[in-house]
Amino acid sequence: MPTVVPSIYGTSAFKKIDANWAPNIGHTTCGGLPAYVAGMLGLTAEGAATRINTGGGLAGMRNAGIATGSWVHNGAMERRRAVMAGGQPARPKPGDFYLLCSGAVDRHEAGCNCIAPVKLEDAHKYRGATIEHVGIVVSAEGNLWRTADAGQGNQQVQLALYVWRQFNPATQQITGESDKFGKPMRRLCGWIDVDRFPFLT
Ligand SMILES: [Zn+2]
Question: How far apart are CA 156 and CA 178, in angstroms?
Answer without folding.
Answer: 17
